[in-house]
Amino acid sequence: MFPLYDTIPSRKRPYITHIIILANVIVFFYEIILNEPQLQAFFFNYGIVPLRYTWRFTSKLKYQIIWKEIQPFIVSNPIVPFISHMFVHGGWSHILGNMWFLWIFGDNVEDRMGHFNYLLFYLSGGLFALTFHWLFNFYSPYPLIGASGAISAVMGAYFIQFWYSKIVTLVIWFIPFLVEIPAVVYLFFWFMFQILNGTLADITGSGVAYWAHVGGFIYGMIVGGRIRRYYL
């Protein structure tokens, strides 16, 4: 199933959503011109590498060794990755999927919150998602990149604010057809799917940050719900 659009038009132009998408696209096209070693260095410097911040808190020799191996590649300011990781993507499917979901859900949430509040919500949601991911990957030497944590927060807010909406979804079952799925149903099962995949990923070692999705969605439900009650 692939979501195409929702059934609630926004009343105002979602300028911040458009700017966020444009910023992600610009960064991605910069990534394309990099060769493989440069791209890996870019990921390590502008993605969040948990071990960069936690190696001092472990006495395990293997983490000390891993840190010494990757440390020469990391030269960026340690604060920058907390924001920049939300604008870095690992491939075409990564950025297209993220930007498509942001396009579907972001306009209505921005409309409800207002442009400035939405921007703060988006960035803080990404940081909360990062924190949730960090709890399950405290000494990870792999960079966390992508906007999916922040976008999951947007989806969590949509779940609370626009539960009555419908998501027009493309379903391919022998032949393709469209179906309207209630947003509350679509997003509930999406959220449960992230929890299931996150649990399996802890066993199989998948590279997808499912727990960041879970954390972002929870943040969106809590904070999005409060903003909704404040404005209505």
UniProtKB/TrEMBL annotation:
Give the record's membrane topology.
Multi-pass membrane protein
Q: State the Gene Ontology terms under molecular function.
A: serine-type endopeptidase activity
> What Pfam families does the record point to?
Rhomboid
Q: Which residues form the Peptidase S54 rhomboid domain?
A: 81-225
Q: Where are its TM segments located? A: 15-33, 82-104, 116-136, 142-164, 171-196, 208-227
Q: Cross-referenced InterPro entries, in alphabetical order?
A: Peptidase_S54_rhomboid_dom (IPR022764), Rhomboid-like_sf (IPR035952), Rhomboid_protease_S54 (IPR050925)
Please list the GO biological process terms of this entry. Answer: proteolysis
Q: Which GO terms describe its cellular component?
A: membrane
Entry keywords, A to Z:
Hydrolase, Membrane, Protease, Transmembrane, Transmembrane helix
- Keyword Transmembrane among record annotations: yes
What broad class describes the main subcellular location of this protein? membrane
Report the domain of life of the source organism.
Answer: Bacteria
Signal peptide positions on this chain: none
Q: Where in the cell is it found?
A: Membrane
- Put simply, this protein is called Membrane associated serine protease, rhomboid family
